[in-house]
Known about the structure:
The chain is α+β, with helices and mostly antiparallel strands. 31% of the residues lie in helices and 19% in strands.
Amino acid sequence: xxxxxxxxxxxxxxxxxxxxxxxxxxxxxxxxxxxxxxxxxxxxxxxxxxxxxxxxxxxxxxxxxxxxxxxxxxxxxxxxxxxxxxxxxxxxxxxxxxxxxxxxxxxxxxxxxxxxxxxxxxxxxxxxxxxxxxxxxxxxxxxxxxxxxxxxxxxxxxxxxxxxxxxxxxxxxxxxxxxxxxxxxxxxxxxxxxxxxxxxxxxxxxxxxxxxxxxxxxxxxxxxxxxxxxxxxxxxxxxxxxxxxxxxxxxxxxxxxxxxxxxxxxxxxxxxxxxxxxxxxxxxxxxxxxxxxxxxxxxxxxxxxxxxxxxxxxxxxxxxxxxxxxxxxxxxxxxxxxxxxxxxxxxxxxxxxxxxxxxxxxxxxxxxxxxxxxxxxxxxxxxxxxxxxxxxxxxxxxxxxxxxxxxxxxxxxxxxxxxxxxxxxxxxxxxxxxxxxxxxxxxxxxxxxxxxxxxxxxxxxxxxxxxxxxxxxxxxxxxxxxxxxxxxxxxxxxxxxxxxxxxxxxxxxxxxxxxxxxxxxxxxxxxxxxxxxxxxxxxxxxxxxxxxxxxxxxxxxxxxxxxxxxxxxxxxxxxxxxxxxxxxxxxxxxxxxxxxxxxxxxxxxxxxxxxxxxxxxxxxxxxxxxxxxxxxxxxxxxxxxxxxxxxxxxxxxxxxxxxxxxxxxxxxxxxxxxxxxxxxxxxxxxxxxxxxxxxxxxxxxxxxxxxxxxxxxxxxxxxxxxxxxxxxxxxxxxxxxxxxxxxxxxxxxxxxxxxxxxxxxxxxxxxxxxxxxxxxxxxxxxxxxxxxxxxxxxxxxxxxxxxxxxxxxxxxxxxxxxxxxxxxxxxxxxxxxxxxxxxxxxxxxxxxxxxxxxxxxxxxxxxxxxxxxxxxxxxxxxxxxxxxxxxxxxxxxxxxxxxxxxxxxxxxxxxxxxxxxxxxxxxxxxxxxxxxxxxxxxxxxxxxxxxxxxxxxxxxxxxxxxxxxxxxxxxxxxxxxxxxxxxxxxxxx
Length: 989
C-alpha cells in the first residue's frame, strides 16, 4: 500500500484543494488524517486480475475430479474481449455515463461539483457523479453503501486504477461488469438477455437502449419479467424460462424514452451523424427484443447456492478480499471447486420433500383443512391469530375471478370531489405506500396451506394518497385521472384494483415449511441440504442456512449439559425439578411441558424428558459465561460477530446472555439449522467441531491449492469421554420418543419445541451422519399441531432410514476410559445403605468419564429424627417415645413452596422437614366420677411415676429407617397433645 501512496495523496490533495469549496460536503466531518486512514484500509489494486484473470468460468468437480457443473447464479455474466464490443456501444456508455471519460484522470471535478451541490441541498448523498473509473472501482472492490468513507475509497481506487490500466482497459473491464438489469452483468450478458444475440451483432439503436439501462436498471430494464400465469392485457414481447419456470417479457416504456436521451447525447458529442441518429430513432427496439432462455443447472439449487456463499466467505477470510472481489473471483477467476455433495443423498431428500406431508400424515388430498397446522378462523373463513387479529384473507374474500383485489361498496366509494375513499381491512397506508393484505389458499393436490403475498402500490406524495379524519384512505382524483386503469367500477357499485399495479404471488408458498441438513461429522462436509418445501424456480430463501429460528430445547445439550459434564456434574447428578423464580405475571418459571414438578431428578432423565427447570437450574449453577465459552467452540458464536447470537455488548437490553435463551432456547433471533446441526456434529465427532462446508478443496486456474481440508476451522469443544456421555444420554432420549427405529444402528437425538408450537426441531446423529430437521411456518403467528416428537422426530426417522439404506449396522464407539458404576441418582455419588433403602430404586448403573466419576458417598439420603405425630423435626420437647429416625432426601435447592404459590414437587413427602414440631405430651387427668378404678391400673400408674406411658414399649428412640411413608404420614396416637409455645421452629416445608 505504501508503494504509491505519496504520489496518490499529492494528486488527491491537489484535486480536493481545487474543488474543496464545491465538494466540502463529501468530506464533511473527516479530517485529513481520517481521509488517509480510510485510504489505507482500501483494497489493494491488482491490475492483472482486472485485465486477465476474470475471464474464465469457475467449475465444480466431484471428489474424483469429474466436472459436474459450472458456478450457477441468478446473476448472469459473460466476459468478452474489448475488441468484440461494438464502437457504438462504447460511445453510448461514454456519452451518457461519463462524457469526459477520455480526458479526466479518474475523477471529473465538474461532475463532482454538480453532485455535491445537490447532495448539500438534500442533506445527504442523493446523486453520485461518479466516473466510469469510479464505477469500475466500486463494482470490483467496494459496495453501494451511500457513505462518505466508501466515496473516499472509491476516489482513491479510481486514481490507482488510472495509473495501472489504459482507458481502453478500464472501459472494457467496466462494460464486462456493469449491472444491466434482469440479473445480467456486463454488455454481453445483456445482449443475450434482451436480444438473444452476441453483443457484436447489435445495431446503434439497440446499443443506445442498453446504455440507457445503467442509470436505473430496475426502472429501465428493456422489459418487465412477469410469470405467464399472471399476465392479463399487457403487451408481451416474448416468453422465456428461468430455472424451468415460464415468464413473459412485458413491454416497459421507460427504457425507450431513455434510449432517445442516449441518442441525443451521442449526437451532441459527435459520436454519430444526424442520419444515423434519425435511423436509430426510427428503429423499433421493442419489436427486436427476444428474451433468452436460461438453462437449469444440474446441481441442487439449495446446495449450490450455499456453496457459492461459503466459497466467497472463505476467499474473503483467507485472502482479505472485499466481497465484490471474492464474487468476481468465484464467477470468473477460473476456480476449480471440489464439491462435498452426495448427489444420491440430495436426490433422496428432494424426493421426500416433494411429498413431505404424506410422510407425516398420509393421504390428505380429501381434507378440507390444512394438515400439520393449528389454524384459527373468523366467521368468514379468514385465518386469525389467538387474539382474533387477521393474518390471511381467504382467497375468495380478497380476489375476484380475474385475481384482482375486489372491494365491496361499503369498502370503497367515490366522494363528492371524485376521489376514491377506501374503508377496508384489505389494505392499509404506510406513508405513501398502499399495502394490501395477504391471503391463503389450500393446495389442490394435498390441501397444504399456501400463503400468498399481495404486494403494494407506491404513490409519489401524500397529495396522491392520504388518510382523512376518519382514518379512511383517500386516493386523489388527479392520480386516478393519470392512472385510469387502477380501479374498475362495476354496476353494483363495487370496485376491483388492477393487479398490474402491484405484484401478487398467485402460486404462493406452501406451509408449514421445513429444512434439513446432513453433515458427515468426521470431515464437517455437508453432504445434502434442503432449504424449503415445494419451491420452484430460483430457490433463494434457504431456511437451512439463512433463516434463524428459536431452537427450543434442542439447545440444551450444547449450551447447558455439555458444559455441566465438564464442570463437576455427571449424568447421575440429581437436580431439583422445581421453579426457579416467579415471572412478571406472578407465575412460576420455568414451566415443564407436563405442567407439574417432579422434584430431584438425575440429569440423564432430565435430558430424556426435556425438563426445563433442570436445564435452567443447571445452567444457572454452571454459569452463563461458561455456556458462552462452549458455544464459541461449538461454532455458534463467532469472534467477528458474524453470527445470529446477540451478545450483551451488541444489545444490552435484549440479548441471549440469559437463562431463558441458553436454558430453554428462547433466543432473540434464534439459530439456523446449519448452525445447530454442525454443533451436534461436534458431539458425534468425539467432541471436535469442524467447520461445516459444502466443498473440500479450492484451486485457482493454475492448479494452486487455495483451500483444502488442512485449512478447515476446528475447535476441541470437549473431551471424547464427555462427548460419549452426552451421546449416551441422547441415545436414551431418542429411545424415549418411541418412534425412531434404524434397524439396529445406534442413534442419538434431541427435539425442540418453542412456545405456542411455532417451531419443531429434531437434531441428532448416527455413527455415519449428523442430521438436523426444522419445521414451522414462515409466518411465526401460525402454529403447528402435534408436537416435535410426532412431527420432527418422525421425519428424522424417515430421512435417516432412507439415507442409511444399504449401510451396515453400526454402533457408537465407546472410549476405553469410560467406566460403569453403581451410583445414587439423587446425589450422583457412591450409594450408601440409605441409598439402597429408597423404595423408588434410586441406585442405578451409570457411565462416567475419568474426570466426573464419583469418589464420595451419597450425601442426599440422610437420617432425620422426627416427631412421628406430625412428621416434623423432633424438638427438645418431643417425647422420646414419639421420636423416630427416618431416611429422607436432603434438599438440593433452597426451594420454599410459600414463595411459589404453594406448589409442591411430587417428591415432597420424601424430603426432610425443615420445621420443628411444637407438640408436647400432657398426662391425662383422672376422671372424678369413676369410683371403681381397676387396682392393677393404679399400680401401673404408681410404677410409672412422672414418665408417660410409652406405646412403643421402650423409652429409647425407635429407629424407623425407610418405613412405608404413606402409613407413616397417616399414623396417629391416642395420647392427647397440645401445642408447646416454646418449641423450636424452622422454615415451613
